[in-house]
Write a structure and sequence with these properties.
- Two copies of one chain form a homodimer.
- Chain A has helices at about 30-35, 35-50, 90-95, 140-150, 165-170, 225, 235, and strands spanning about 1-10, 55-60, 65-70, 75, 80-85, 100-110, 120-130, 135, 170-175, 180-190, 205-210, 215.
- By secondary structure, chain A is of the alpha+beta class.
- In chain A, strands 1, 2, 3, 6, 7, 10 and 11 form a seven-stranded mixed sheet that branches. A four-stranded antiparallel sheet of chain A has the order 4-5-9-8, sandwiched between helices.
- Chain A is globular and about 65 Å long.
- The relative contact order of chain A is 0.18.
- Residues about 10-40 and about 245-250 of chain A have low confidence and may be disordered.
Amino acid sequence: MIFYVARQHSNNNRYEQPLNTEKIIATHRTKIKTNAIRAVYDSKEILKIIDESFLCHLGFAVNNQPFVIPVCYGRKDDRIYFHGAKGSRMFNTLRSGAEICVTISIVDGIVLARSAFNHTINYRSVVIFGKAHELNSPADKADALKIITEHIIPGRWGDVRKPTEKELHATSLFSLNINEASAKIRSGHPIDDEDDLELDVWAGVLPLKIIDGKPIKDDSVKNKVHNNFQIPDYIKNYRKNGKSIPEKRRR
Amino acid sequence: MIFYVARQHSNNNRYEQPLNTEKIIATHRTKIKTNAIRAVYDSKEILKIIDESFLCHLGFAVNNQPFVIPVCYGRKDDRIYFHGAKGSRMFNTLRSGAEICVTISIVDGIVLARSAFNHTINYRSVVIFGKAHELNSPADKADALKIITEHIIPGRWGDVRKPTEKELHATSLFSLNINEASAKIRSGHPIDDEDDLELDVWAGVLPLKIIDGKPIKDDSVKNKVHNNFQIPDYIKNYRKNGKSIPEKRRR
């Protein structure tokens, strides 16, 4: 895998130690090839971001006109998988071998500086380039649907009615290799100009996170069996399954 | 403005009234031109989605190679505004008059059906097409920075040190007219096949939402003035300012 990570972190203790702004920019991926240890570290970081979200923005172009479509995905090993109805413009374009760009973004907070100019957000994002590969056999398609379902809500697949051949025929499934990817991460406090530090302005970070609410049972089926169903643990404990972000990692 | 909205909502009371699946698909925008009332309603709906988020995914293409970049934005009237460092590939491409696609997505929940195939998510998304317009005068650029800041955290602009001419010179600011936009909305419970309704599977919706955590003060400045700062109300009450989503609108 070929990765680069652009990272920016502001250290709290600006006056006790030098400003710890770690910033690695690689404009060409070969730069990272020369640093295998960094590359391994980066691939873990990239996969962690991919695993924390399940919505990507998939970009493709037709005659240089860009389209950006929100798409749910799942990851297994070095691939992400996504699906949708056959015959859409997006899937027809993917099928023709077009280059795509898949971007995943997680917002961690609003960074409130003393100057307007130095406001920013804390975020982690991944960009993957490549060509999507269509899955054709019913077995591969069923496997991919399982990967997507288990990525979005781990534990769910075992409970539900599995797809029929007719359903598999009606849906298109694609994979994208995560072999050319980059990440950008911004964390920590605002970086204000020296002259602004004594200004009479509250400065810091307002953390943002995604949480799950109370599960809402589908009450359309008026039978006692369903009304007595307990909420499965994998739904009740969703946040604990790693899809939303533990507080300690939100700085 | 020219809009279309593709809407899908499953009604709870599947057995008490016909399945209320409202689904409007307009593949060509002229379809909406013939229905002015719907168009007005849709534009409100689209602006509501734009105002609820502040992160878009901006797509552009260079020689048919797509790029999708996460970008913060603000909206005023019928335009969104965004900014960044001068000289990036993205801004050079925008400056050349390239067509762009800006997509904003809000995930409202995971829809858990009785069959794997009918799983989906509840979401609201907006896609805007057009060409970005660069702002050149310092006054226009300062106005746009104010729009972006106030969009992300209303009330903040009045507190902070305003941008200098040097800062304005160092940043590029663009606007995009919201005059060709579409929205897609999915809400409500899963739509299961009739045959699956009696299955022994918990079905319903797991709502997801973005919340703000406890503000973290930048403690890098060791002076009493700053340590005595109170958290401003617009930060403390961030969720009440409409940037995250009231519970009653989450179904």
